[in-house]
Amino acid sequence: MPYDRVTVNIEKEEVSLERTAPRLDPRLISTTTGGVEASCRDCLLPFGLVLTVIGLSATSVACVNDPPGSVLSVLGWVLLGTGVLGVAVSCAWQQWRTRKRSGSWTILESETETKKPVV
Hints:
The chain is mainly alpha-helical. The protein has helices at residues 26-33, 40-65, 71-102; strands at 5-9, 14-18. Keywords: Membrane, Transmembrane, Transmembrane helix.
């Protein structure tokens, strides 16, 4: 791995070599993923729904067969919570994009009226 910076101090007769972390090129990420790095919003809802169904079924099986706090029960609750969170984030993201696209995000400015004193 090559050095990125070489500094020389002539008075002290020191040479220091520095390596920095390689910078990530955004085009490299796009090439690696095939250009699907912005499709998270498209997959979040289906995966959230699948996780919710799996979590619901695991929790119901655990509640019928196992005592509370068993591994299956905890796993079911975690999957159920993650699925519901995924669905909620997906819906909120879609609402935000719809409002952003339609331009309904407006900044309200208060109008001040100047009143004339009555004499």
